[in-house]
């Protein structure tokens, strides 16, 4: 969902760096061949993630929720030359699809895809990260935050997607579903955490940017 006027959104897209040929192909093929293609970050958000990653120049990036690999490829654009991006996906059927795009990109050697439940895999990675992108199941956002924070370097960033959940976070309690409640709990927890600074951007479905102090 976009929270801004459609004409403004289109104008903003027209004045945002175009997707690479590979990202265009991945975007097209995800919509043609994979279920729930709207989960893909897409042009504007992808360029935003790339821009943020280039600003941070992270050595290690962690992504929760690979899906078809679009956001992983965008985030990998900012990695240091020796850097690595670790991305976790629970749906094994997506592995071959995502992996073929990783291999076609300049980041094939740098992107490590892990198949399984992020809750179990995060503690096994044994790495300290400079940037974490949370984009897996919404019911675990609070758990992911608590689990990832100790593995985030001081001055490192967490970005969490979908924190406005199509605007449902401002609906009356009787109109909210379970995922809305989970995301609201996440947003409140971050807002009350004195160990971070945060800003909630109404980009696409809402991005929470968090910096560990
Ligand atoms: C919104 S999609 C990710 C989109 C991707 N980051 C992008 O922007 O192109 C969420 C993904 O999280 C995966 N997922 C859900 N629960 C998970 C879990 N417990 N551990 C790892 N991945 C999970 C889903 O299978 C799905 O592919």
- Strand residue content: 15-25%
Going by CATH, the homologous superfamily would be Vaccinia Virus protein VP39
At the first level of CATH, the class is: Alpha Beta
Q: Could you list the spans in which at least 5 consecutive residues all have pLDDT below 50? A: none
Bound ligands, each once: S-adenosylmethionine
Number of domains: 1
Largest sheet: 7 strands, mixed
Termini separation (Å)?
31 Å
Identify the strand order in the major beta sheet. 3-2-1-4-5-7-6
- The structural class is alpha/beta
- CATH topology value: Rossmann fold
Number of strands: 7
The percentage helix is: 25-40%
Summary of the model, kept short:
The chain is 39% helix and 21% strand. It contains eight helices and seven strands, in the order αααβαβαβαβαβαββ.
Helices and strands, with pairings:
Blueprint (H helix, E strand, L loop, with lengths): L5 H9 L6 H13 L9 H14 L3 E5 L5 H7 L7 E6 L5 H10 L6 E5 L2 H8 L3 E6 L6 H8 L3 E10 L16 H14 L4 E6 L5 E6 L1
Parallel strand pairs: 1-2, 1-4, 2-3, 4-5
Antiparallel strand pairs: 5-7, 6-7
Helix pairs in contact: 3-4, 6-7
The structure holds S-adenosylmethionine.
């Amino acid at each position: 969902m976009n929270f801004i006027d459609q004409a403004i959104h289109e104008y903003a897209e027209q004045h945002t760096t175009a997707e690479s040929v590979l990202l265009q192909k991945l975007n097209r093929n995800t919509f043609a061949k994979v279920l729930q293609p709207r989960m893909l970050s897409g042009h504007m958000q992808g360029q935003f993630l790339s821009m943020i990653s280039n600003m941070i120049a992270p050595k290690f990036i962690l992504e929760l929720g690979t899906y078809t690999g679009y956001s992983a490829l965008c985030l990998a654009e900012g990695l240091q030359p020796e850097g690595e991006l670790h991305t976790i996906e629970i749906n094994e059927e997506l592995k071959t699809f995502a992996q073929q795009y990783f291999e076609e990109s300049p980041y094939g050697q740098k992107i490590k895809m892990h198949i399984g439940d992020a809750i179990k895999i995060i503690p096994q990675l044994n790495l300290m990260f400079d940037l974490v992108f949370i984009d897996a199941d919404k019911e675990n956002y609070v758990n992911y935050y608590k689990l990832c924070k100790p593995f985030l370097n001081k001055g490192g960033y967490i970005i969490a997607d979908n924190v406005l959940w199509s605007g449902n976070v401002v609906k009356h309690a009787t109109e909210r579903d379970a995922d809305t409640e989970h995301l609201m709990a996440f947003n409140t927890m971050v807002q009350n955490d004195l160990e971070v600074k945060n800003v909630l951007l109404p980009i696409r479905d809402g991005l929470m940017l968090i910096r560990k102090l």
